[in-house]
Amino acid sequence: MADKPSDDHASRVHQSFDDLDQKVGGRLDEAGREAIAKVRAAAASRDAAALKEGLANLQEQHGWLYTELAAHPRIAILLDELALLGL
Which residues contact 69 (CB under 8 A, 6 or more apart)? Predict the structure, then answer.
């Protein structure tokens, strides 16, 4: 069975992060928006190094936002899927 096309994965990532933005977007400053954008791009492109770095930065610099991201059901599922793939 073939893997799903990568554009399907990227689309799911973007939809999930759009949903998160609807929830917390009003509370984000510019640095928070940039941090989330980096994590979103890394997850969409399956860039393990950038994703790890982005999540670590988010946790260190924007703890509340990291908590919101980790608690978001669709994003948590995506991150689990990426972890299972070794990313």
Answer: 20, 36, 39, 58, 75
Count of other CB atoms within 10 angstroms of residue 6: 11
Global pTM reads: 0.83
Q: Amino acid identity, residue 13?
A: V
Q: pLDDT tens digit string along 26-76?
A: 999 999 999 999 999 999 998 989 999 999 999 999 999 999 998 999 998
What's the angle, vertex CA 10, arms to CA 53 and CA 73, rounded to 5?
Answer: 75
